[in-house]
Write a structure and sequence with these properties.
There is one protein chain. The protein is 35% helix and 29% strand. With 203 residues, the protein is an alpha+beta fold. The chain has a single domain (7-197), classed as Aminopeptidase. It has a nine-stranded mixed sheet. Helix 6 links the parallel strand 5 (105-112) and strand 6. Helix 1 crosses helix 3. The longest helix has 16 residues, at 122-137. It is globular. The two termini are 20 Å apart. Bound molecules: coenzyme A. Coenzyme A is lined by residues 39-40, 86, 110-112, 118-124, 145, 147, 151-154, 156-157, 160.
Length: 203
C-alpha cells in the first residue's frame, strides 16, 4: 500500500523501511531458501516476478510491507542493502470475510531471513512494532497469524504476545492464531516498544 511509502519506523535494534525496488535482489536471494519457502508458505519466484510482486505490494491497498534493517549495522555502515535482515507484512482481510462489521482483521507475517540475525529479538521487536503500526494507522481490531505446526519459535513468540490457537488445517500442517485488540493489550505493546515514525527518503 502507499500509506507507508515515505515512512520508516525506528525501533531500538531494528528500523522498518518500505519495500523498494532496490531491495528486490536481496529479497529474491533469501527466497531461494527452501527452509524460508516452507516456513513462510511461499512459492519460488523468478527475479522478474519478484520485481512485479514488489510493485503490486506497493499498489495493493490490502497489503502493508516493511523490510527490517539491523539498526546497529545500518548506523555503522550506512548501507541499507547490507543491513537488511527480513520483512514484516500485514494483509488486511476483506470486509466481507469479517463476520462482524465492527471487526477489522489483519494477518501479520514476519520473517528474519538472515540466519545470523535470528535469536537477537529482532523478530520480536519488528513484530510488535508492526502490530502497533497496524492498530494505530490501519485501525486493526483483530490479528491473525498463520504458522506451520512445527514452527516452534514462531508459535512461542505469538503465544508470548497473547495470541491463541483458533484453527488447525492438517493437510497444510498449518495453525492459525488470533488476538483481539483491546486497551489492555495495546497498553502492554506500548510498554514493550514505542512507535517512532520518521520520513523515509528514497536514495
Ligand atoms: C520466528 C522468527 C520470526 C523469530 O524471530 P527471531 O528474531 O529469531 O526471534 P527473537 O529473538 O525475536 O525471539 C522472539 C520469540 O520467539 C521465540 N523463540 C525465539 N527463538 C526460540 C527458540 N530457539 N526456541 C523457542 N522459542 C524461540 C521466543 O518466544 C522469543 O521470545 P523471548 O525472547 O521473549 O523468549 C524467526 O526465527 C524467523 O523469521 N523464522 C523464519 C520465518 C518464520 O518462521 N516466520 C514466521 C512465520 S509465521
Amino acid at each position: 500500500m502507499k500509506l507507508n511509502e515515505n515512512l520508516k519506523i525506528v525501533g531500538s535494534n531494528v528500523i522498518l523501511v518500505p519495500y523498494e525496488r532496490k531491495h528486490v535482489e536481496k529479497y529474491h536471494q533469501w527466497m531461494k531458501s527452501e527452509e524460508l519457502q516452507e516456513l513462510t508458505a511461499s512459492e519460488p519466484l523468478t527475479l522478474e516476478e519478484e520485481y512485479q510482486m514488489q510493485q503490486s505490494w506497493r499498489e495493493d491497498n490490502d497489503k502493508c510491507t516493511f523490510l527490517i534493517l539491523d539498526k546497529a549495522d545500518f548506523e555503522q555502515h550506512g548501507d541499507e542493502i547490507r543491513a537488511l535482515v527480513g520483512d514484516t507484512n500485514i494483509f488486511l482481510q476483506s470486509e466481507t470475510d469479517d463476520d462482524d462489521d465492527n471487526i477489522r482483521t489483519g494477518e501479520i507475517e514476519i520473517m528474519i531471513a538472515e540466519q545470523l540475525a535470528r535469536g537477537k529479538r529482532y523478530g520480536r521487536e519488528s513484530t510488535l512494532l508492526m502490530l502497533l503500526f497496524g492498530i494505530k494507522q490501519l485501525h486493526i481490531t483483530r490479528y491473525k497469524a498463520i504458522t506451520k505446526e512445527n514452527n516452534t519459535k514462531a508459535i512461542k513468540m505469538f503465544e508470548s504476545f497473547g495470541f491463541r490457537e483458533t484453527k488447525r488445517v492438517a493437510v497444510f500442517k498449518e495453525v492459525t492464531f488470533e488476538k483481539l485488540v483491546d486497551e489492555e493489550w495495546l497498553a502492554w505493546i506500548e510498554r514493550e516498544v514505542s512507535l517512532k515514525l520518521e520520513s523515509y527518503h528514497k536514495r
